[in-house]
Amino acid sequence: MRTFGTAFLIVSSLFTAWTSWISLRSPSEFGKSLGYALPGADGRNEIRAQYGGFFLAVTVGSVLALLGIIPRHAGLIVNAVVFGGLIAGRLISLAVDGGMKEYGFVIRVLFLVDATGFVLSIASLLLDPLVAGRG
User: Fold this and answer.
1) Above 60 in pLDDT, residue 135?
2) Backbone phi, then psi, for 57, in 5-degree steps?
3) Cα distance between residue 16 and residue 83, in whole Å
């Protein structure tokens, strides 16, 4: 079911491109939305590197997979690893922090985004004919 994976890669590309763009363009505002205070150039650089650069790389991987320049399953694996790592870190943090009571709205939404990205990337991999041995 290639259309499911294609749809996922398109949505992922849009989300990761948007995240990359806003964090590269306005790192202080982006950081503030996540609860960071960025007092200087070091903090802005870190937001640009960790969010802007990292999500730009995921965007490129997804777009290259959509264009057939790299294997489709490679783009799906990149997404599974990234969103899987993000949700794993969030769940560990949730356990250590003793719940969501201190988390703001954006972080709460990101739990849903990251979990959904992980589940859909895995589903896309499992439904892909090449990965499932049907292609």
Assistant:
1) no
2) -65, -40
3) 11
- Which pair of tokens denotes residue 129? 């004919």
Provide the CA 31 distance to its chain's centre, in angstroms.
16
Number of residues that this document lists for the chain: 135
pLDDT above 70 covers a percentage of the chain that reads: 95
The tokens for 125 are 């991999």
